[in-house]
Amino acid sequence: MAKRDGPSWNAKTRAVLDERLAIGPETRRFFVEAEWPTLKALAARIVPQPADREAPVPVAALVDHKLATDTRDGYRNSELPEEREAWRRGLRALDAEAIARFGARFHELGAWAQDELLKLAEKGELMDAAWEGMPSKLFFHQRVLADVVKAYYAHPTAWNEIGWGGPASPRGYVRMDFDRRDPWEAAEAKPGREDEAYEENLRVGD
């Protein structure tokens, strides 16, 4: 974000990130009230965040934004319905599976039970009638993992976490080879040499 007003970002990049950062954790336009806690619990198991994080990435809200704006991938497996329907059906089915196996909705379960259900979904072994023929394995891999993980890593908080310098538009990244970086990118803090990286990064400017 320190590069926001430098040559790394153009007006379009700033507008996209401003829209993304305006989404709060309870921003909801697509999912109905009954679906919302299931989605939030699911996102928390896929990308758990530090308990002491002052402003967690609003993963569920970012997924909701994608669906509310009907932003599609441009492709899908023929065994999956379109994205909005896949999500609605998948969340209903997760709740149905949770009730059948544990007697409570997905968001009401403990972490262990939630993870057990997700492991079964990952292997395609959830087959409640609520899936309506949609393979749980495809829903898990091509909707849950794809949408939730992409939502998380689309946020500047996640960029900071992994040490990525963020978008470079219109300037772009040039040195794309292994273990190379552009002169304006931050240096990696390798074990035992953190002070060197810190000093070098102080010299890095836009």
Q: Provide the structure class.
A: mainly alpha
DSSP strand tally: 0
H/E order of the elements? HHHHHHHH
Q: How many individual domains? A: 2
Number of helices: 8
Beta fraction: under 5%
What is the compact description of this entry?
This protein has 206 residues and is mostly helical. It contains 8 helices and no strands.
Overview of the structural elements:
By secondary structure, this protein is an all-alpha fold. The protein has 2 domains: 11-162, no CATH class; 173-206, no CATH class. It has 8 helices and no strands. Helix 3 (59-68) packs across helix 6, helix 4 (83-102) packs across helix 6 (136-153) and helix 5 packs across helix 6 (136-153). The longest helix has 20 residues, at 83-102. The model has no long low-confidence stretch (mean pLDDT 91).
